[in-house]
Sequence to fold (258 residues):
Amino acid sequence: MNSADTTDDQGDLPEDTQAGAPADSEQLAADQLDSDTNETSVDASATDQQSSEEAAAPAPPPAKKQVAPKVDKADDGEAKMDWYILKVAFNREDSIAEALRKRVKMEGMTEEFGEIVVPTEDVATFTRDGKRRVTKRKLLPGYIMVNMIINDDTWFLVRETGGISDFTGAAGKPMPMEPSDIERFINKPEVDDEDETPIKTAIPFKVGDRVRVKEGNFENQEGDVDSVDEANGRITVIINIFGRSVPMELDHWQVEAL
Fold:
């Protein structure tokens, strides 16, 4: 076959077949561009929708401020100073009371707070060699008493002091002390020197305890504690002598627990 025949054969092909390859490439490129544009539009629409949902989401509620419970006020409507009892860590009453005093001064609330008291009484104890010693004994272990005005600031200061768990009272409301309790624990009665109240003796026994006499005429005899006299430091012990129960009054240091 000569070159003329080849040329004639190509001339017989349809025009769209001769230009088919370039036309198909351009069409594919156009289709790909349209697809990319559609995907971009979908992504942008989804992003806009997500942003709208985030913007429409409600903001979290603000933290609730702690406020003091409502307490009774004076007749003129002003908050009044009252005595309250605070529950505190056991055996840390003195250090917690001192920490509260320091916080009151640091926060400048001395006008809202009065006395802070750990109620105690004087008692006499005896060393092993028989020497008498006067010490302080806590009347209410695990509690302290404070004279104060209740408001949001003072209530929060007390509650945030380490070692203090809460006020005493009902339904979370601080309950002021009764006048009789204030007289008993806070206001010490004034006495003359001649009528001075005798110091109690700390006696480690109670009624019903089983004890043994460790010195005197009834040494090694056993009995039960019948009564305790803290004012004079003596106890009455029921001892069995010759088959009869006999009450014997002894100094508390003359006996020992079984």
Observations:
- The chain has a mean pLDDT of 75.
- The chain is about 30% helix and 30% strand.
